[in-house]
Design brief:
mainly alpha, 3 helices, membrane, 120 residues
C-alpha cells in the first residue's frame, strides 16, 4: 500500500501534508520544504574548515616538494648523460686517429694537453 500512496501524492506534491515531526504536522510539504532543508542540513564547523586548510596545505607542500625533487633529478640526469656522451665522443676520436678527426690538419699541437704528445 505504501507504493500506492507514493503514486497518489506525487501528482499532488503541493497538497501533501506533513504528519511528522510533530511541530510541522498539518502543514503542506511545499510550505515547509525550505525549513526542513535548513533544519536537516548540517553546516561546517570551525574544526572542519581547519581540517580542510591543513589537508590543502599538505597537498600543496607535497606537490611542491615532488616538483623540486623531479627538477633536481632531471638536472642530475642531464649532467650524467652529457658527461657520458662526451666520454663516448672522446673514445671515438681516439679510435679514429688524427687523420679522421675534425681538425683536418693532423696533430698541430692544439689538442688535449693531458695526453702524451705524438711524435712523427
Amino acid at each position: 500500500m505504501q507504493g500506492g500512496r507514493e503514486r497518489r501524492t506525487r501528482g499532488n506534491e503541493g497538497q501533501t501534508i506533513c504528519h511528522n515531526p510533530p511541530e510541522l504536522a498539518g502543514q503542506r510539504v511545499a510550505e515547509v520544504g525550505m525549513q526542513l532543508r535548513a533544519d536537516c542540513h548540517r553546516g561546517l564547523g570551525y574544526w572542519d574548515y581547519l581540517f580542510f586548510i591543513a589537508i590543502g596545505f599538505v597537498i600543496f607542500s607535497a606537490g611542491t616538494v615532488s616538483a623540486w625533487v623531479m627538477g633536481v633529478l632531471m638536472v642530475l640526469y642531464e649532467r650524467y648523460s652529457k658527461r657520458k656522451s662526451e666520454e663516448l665522443d672522446s673514445e671515438d676520436e681516439d679510435e679514429r686517429g688524427p687523420m679522421h678527426g675534425s681538425g683536418g690538419g693532423g696533430n698541430q699541437g692544439n689538442g688535449d694537453l693531458s695526453k702524451p704528445s705524438m711524435q712523427v
